[in-house]
Design a protein that fits this description.
The chain has 126 residues and is of the alpha/beta class. It is 48% helix and 16% strand. The chain has a single domain, classed as Response regulator (Rossmann fold), CATH 3.40.50. Strands 2-1-3-4-5 form a five-stranded parallel beta sheet, sandwiched between helices.
């Protein structure tokens, strides 16, 4: 699993929670690092913020496109502080599996990840 977010506290919190459930988690706080990891690994789930560089960025959309191109079975969950309808629509039209507005309850995130994994290989992991 890959988590991409420019908020380092969010990255480390989610990584710790998910690794505590037995998952292997890679993290990146920028688009370049995320694209490198996506090119080198076959992820079942990618969790990404739609904005990584401030109020004007939409790097999450580029992450969605890259994942769709290299690994169409990978599910992308967008988690962002900007839950506007325009971002939600753009995320889903670009291939997002799910879209959540921060803060996301841990139980909801775990349930979403389990759903992705179960669809991928029939196994619930956390």
């Amino acid at each position: 699993m890959l988590i991409v977010d420019d908020e380092k506290m969010f990255l480390f919190f989610v990584k710790k929670v998910l690794e505590g459930g037995g998952l292997t988690v890679d993290i990146s706080d920028n688009l370049k690092g995320a694209l490198k990891l996506i090119g080198e690994n076959d992820y079942v789930v990618v969790i990404a913020d739609i904005r990584l560089t401030g109020s004007d960025g939409e790097e999450g959309v580029e992450i969605l496109r890259q994942v769709r191109d290299v690994s169409p079975r990978t599910k992308v969950i967008i988690i962002t502080a900007d839950g506007s309808q325009s971002f939600r629509t753009r995320a889903y039209s670009s291939g997002a599996y799910l879209f959540f507005e921060k803060p996301v309850p841990t139980s909801l995130l775990k349930g979403a990840i389990n759903g992705c994994m179960e669809e991928h290989d029939g196994v619930v992991r956390i």
